[in-house]
Design brief:
Elements lengths: L1 E6 L6 H11 L2 E4 H8 L5 H10 L12 H9 L2 H29 L4 E5 L15 E5 L2 H12 L3 H9 L4 H4 L5 E4 L4 H21 L1
Helix pairs in contact: 1-9, 2-5, 3-5, 6-7
Length: 203
Amino acid sequence: MVVAGLTGGIASGKSFVSSLFASYGAGVVDADVIAREVVKSGSKAWQLIREQFGESVLLEDGSINRDLLGSIIFSDPEKKAQLNGLVHPAVIEEMEVSLREMLSSGRYGLVICDVPLLIETGMYRDYREIILVSVPREIQIQRLMLRDRISQEDAMMKISSQMALDDKKRYATILIDNSGSREETAEKALAAYEYLSRQHVRK
């Protein structure tokens, strides 16, 4: 089984590309989905967040107020690092469980680990193949404005808070440019899927 890392940036189209890989037959381990699971009410990570950030970050039903927590850490690197330190270990543990299950099932020749912070956290070192979904900054800004219905200034602030896509390119072994049509991106993703699947066959 070939395991590849997939990453991108906000409004780059990473989730779309991840769904394409799944439609072609790859197994997908989605760190974002797992991150939502591990902070559910009563979980260990939920308890740690509650202790660190207080009751104010909880909704009436006890679940994490993700919008509020996001606004707290957005402009505070120290708090962001604190939150990551609470959540990431649980996410990594669950990702490993999912990978083991996929490996033992024998269903997949290729598994894609979809991780937004793949490079920033150093997790990229665990993968021989790193797929980066990228778009020019101007398109990234336009798509984020449209998606979140925010101003250009707010979009630029959000994008600037992340590692630049151009900086991520030096870590990538496979680059998928998502600046064209969805059909064009699907063709590029299929080519990447076939390339990685051939690696599995060679093994």
